[in-house]
Amino acid sequence: MSRAAALAVGAMIALAGIAPSTAAAAPSLPLGAQPALATDPAQLGDDLVADEQALRDPSTPEPALAAAAHREQAAYRAIGRHPEWDATIRPRIPVPLADVYDRNVDARRQLQSMGYPKDTLPAWRIDPPTPADELMSAYHQAESESGVGWNYLAAINLVETRFGSIVGVSTAGAEGPMQFLPSTFSSYGQGGDIHSPHDSIMAAGRYLAANGFANDRDHAIYGYNHAHAYVQAVDDYAALLADPAAFAGFHRWDVYYVTTSGDVLLPIGYAAASPIPVGDYLASHPQ
Predict the structure, then answer these.
(1) Which residue stretches of the chain have pLDDT < 70?
(2) Which of 13, 62, 134, 153 counts the most CB atoms within 10 A of its CB?
(3) Tens of pLDDT along 119-151?
(4) Is residue 249 a contact partner of residue 62, using CB atoms and an 8 Å limit?
(5) 139 alpha-carbon distance from chain centroid
(6) CB-count exposure of residue 15 (10 Å: 0-12, 13-18, 19+)
């Protein structure tokens, strides 16, 4: 979205009767603590609109951008779990943000439908995400070579590893920022490194192109992960990521893990060589 378009969105939100957000400083929270959200659905919706507006305001300083992105993510996770709130929240979303809201909520619910809560936390390491400029360079290079839209590569990168933040091997044996099986990567990586953001993004473009992305995008994405809910979530996020403000927000998102004790935020620096009982982790890492 251009600066002019972003300002236009802000103006339309103001005309819709939503108070503009203020650029509050990032809250001083313990590492790994989740942002506090309003318990009233109507207030939660209004706060979400304010955070979406802050993310689209070029004058919002970095601490407030990070805080808004973290609250945005937590809010969509909460709304995703509570469809009974839709009748209260959805009418409060101004028209310029309606598609943003709808796609975020749908993507969250699609991904939510694919998993089930675990009683242990994973054997992962959580690193800072790959810098945004490096990612954008790789996405566009892959698009130029393969014809696969950069925003679809970004959406897969977001869903799979939060832009490379999650370092670990999946239960199926997939590795790297784009979660390739080593055997598949050997066919599309052209001798690259499965753990390299650049090499794995390039390989993903080649893989999707070879699976017919140009003629049947959803079929190609289904080949990446055999779940229709996954395809729909990637489509939702790809549409949103075309907006630079949305990309910047997503790039600041945290890593959450769904457990039998609720969502657990895994902060940068989390590292486990083997699964950890969730109760043991929460005893020393309050959320």
Answers:
(1) 1-31
(2) 153
(3) 999 999 999 999 999 999 999 999 999 999 999
(4) no
(5) 16
(6) exposed
